[in-house]
Sequence to fold (577 residues):
Amino acid sequence: MTTSHTARIQRRPALECAPWPADTLPLLQRLYTARGVTDPAQAQPKLAQLHAPELMGGMQAAVDLLANAITHNERILVVGDFDCDGATACAVGVRGLRLLGARDVVHAVPNRMLHGYGLSPSLVAELAALQPGLLVTVDHGIACHAGVTAAKALGWKVLITDHHLPGEHLPPADALVDPNLQGDAFPSKALAGVGVILYVLMALRRHLREQGAFASTPEPDLLTLLDLVAVGTVADLVALDANNRALVSAGLRRLRAGQGCVGLQALIEASGRDAKRLSATDIGFALGPRLNAAGRLEDMALGIELLLTEDRAQAREIAQTLEQINAERRAVQQLMTDDAELAVSRAVLIAEGERPIAACLFDAEWHPGVVGLVASKMKDRLHRPVIAFAPSEPGSDSLRGSARSIAGFHIRDALALVNAAHPGLIDKFGGHAMAAGLSLAQANLAAFEQAFLAVVQVQMDPASLQQLLMSDGELGADELDFRHAEALRLAGPWGQGFPEPLFDGHFQVARWQVLKEKHLKLSLRVPGRAEPLNAIHFSGWTGNAPANQVHIAYRLVSDDYRGGGAIQLIIEHCADA
Fold:
């Protein structure tokens, strides 16, 4: 396509730090210090360093509701969400409450096509026959005013556990736990929804312990839930601050040791990953998408069933079904992305090669469950904020939009500015700095696009419009080996806010070929290394042969396809040297 853009490579500065343990690779020392970790104890935080649950606002009210429900054997209804964070949070809530003595715990999840996002009045009406005493939301609820009101009208108590940014007014719940509520003292604002419900369970266990509930029985081990917490946290792309890294690291250790729930073990097997070498990147690119596929194209109830089952045969069967759904998702996504690329290419052509400052994309044939992936792909291609819209259901006049942004531009705040300037234009919206969702009438799409672009023009820092790749510098010939590639895979965990290592350097091109008409495969020579390096630039074929000398930004990874200690470079950016 004609919308490729150049990026600027900037190397991270090295920082001074305390002495590291003698067995720490110098490369890892360099990477951690470049990410602001100057104390070796903070490089891979332990669970003992977690922030205390009582620091989070609303926690005591939440614990009182749950303890009362357990004492009086009330039915507790856990309502999840249709993404990976919502599914894992639902599984953690159900499993954790049962561990802590709740005898009547049921769960539900909205269907994207039938109910829309979160706790809606239509979902509450559908769940009325369950007659719970207490409804607990996980990974949503802070913006579900109508749904909470409907639940309260039925006489239910409502506990909201969420991590999304609140609006101007809060719903009328009996208790709200969300670290992003205004004035909340919890130090880590980056908890995913699955992390919030884990913290509620930790506080509940402490309360029950103080009440003598475990005087004659072993105390429930909530560590068994950390595999689910790791998957939901990584998949939701929340910042991996020290608190989240402690949670994810512990969860990864359980998964690598084969101690994950049978559903996740089956999902790892179906995805072709090696559990013993599982990384946060594997969660982000293999496990998360397979779980998310259920909520995008089918019903996330299937994904939650996988995470709750104790039957290995059933887990394998569900995992294979998710594998098939994910393959269908990939095909749908490719068709939609091709449509989006064509539309953007036309816009760039009309603008004489200039990329728009932002893009709003819509097609009446698109699937609402996949627009977020399309927005993300086009955001990466354009390095611009992108919102992709689809009908909420076939033939509907209501649209669902998914927004993705670039560093330096807060997309949820931009939607709030549009909403403030044009009341009624957006039906509802919510989200984070880098990702958001919204719904509006199709008749309002043109007016919304105009209003949104106007906000972007005012709020966008021009410096943010050129992509900046932060590099960890060059690797020596002695670091370009399997030992260092494996150390990078198992270190971290890397992710949002604690970026996966990216290196840059100049290489001589020995050979090149094009794969599948779009991927560029290179064989690169390095001074001091006898054998050339294999490198691949996915979607990197521009129609022109690479120069003899190239400057690339790349990731060093183990070549799982070739095996035997092989490595390869995954090219993120390539330019003539």
Observations:
- The radius of gyration is 24 Å.
- The longest helix spans residues 312-350.
